[in-house]
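Hi team,

As requested, here is the filled-out complex form for the flavin mononucleotide run. I kept the field names the same as last time so the parser does not choke. Let me know if anything looks off before we queue the next batch.

— J.
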Amino acid sequence: MTPDKCKILEQAFNLTATSYGLQPIKLVVVHDKELQRELMQFTYGQKQIAQASHVFIICIERQIDRDFIHNYFNRVQEIRNTSNEILDPYKGALVENFSKKEREEVRNWATNQAYLALGTLLTVCALEGIDSCPMEGFDPQAYDKLLGLDRKKLTSVLVLPVGYRADDDFFAGLKKVRRDLNDSIIRIL
Ligand SMILES: Cc1cc2nc3c(=O)[nH]c(=O)nc-3n(C[C@H](O)[C@H](O)[C@H](O)COP(=O)(O)O)c2cc1C
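And here is what came back:
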């Protein structure tokens, strides 16, 4: 996959809408065959990891605290020049709201944002003609250790190998298995 295509996917990840706009997620981009082979061991041996052009790992932030929220508002100020008068009430409310949440609740909230980013990436991959395989079947702790994510206060949540399909990829030609549209959609007209 060319650097240009990779950049498009990176931008799509970054442009994903997130709850409150807080972006409690980061994307690790791996384009190193040796490391990909190592990661395969912690992905139940699934070969896509080693064979893909790039492996994307969607991570969540472990520390979503007052500083994290303040950083977001500093960014709003930097980009939009919004006054403190306007930002402060919302900033205060958000810090208070998060301080009351249990760790688990914040973790689940951040994980939901990771899945949202996965959806964006899958769609943009399809539009760009890039194959991708979303994966939950991996050992997040082993990934975090190998990629030094503990030090960065990140936890891996989803893995997405991306690239171009091989000519002899049997699965690529198979029909999609999906529910009938009438089983999937409830129309109230
Ligand atoms: C959240 C999520 C996790 C998945 N985890 C794995 C996985 O660990 N290994 C795998 O081979 N496929 C995994 N899949 C891929 C699905 O099994 C399936 O192949 C994928 O949705 C593509 O299906 P399609 O070709 O019918 O569109 C996962 C899909 C999703 C959405």
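Two things worth flagging: The mean pLDDT is 96. Residues 46, 133-137, 176-177 surround flavin mononucleotide (CB under 6 Å).

Thanks,
J.
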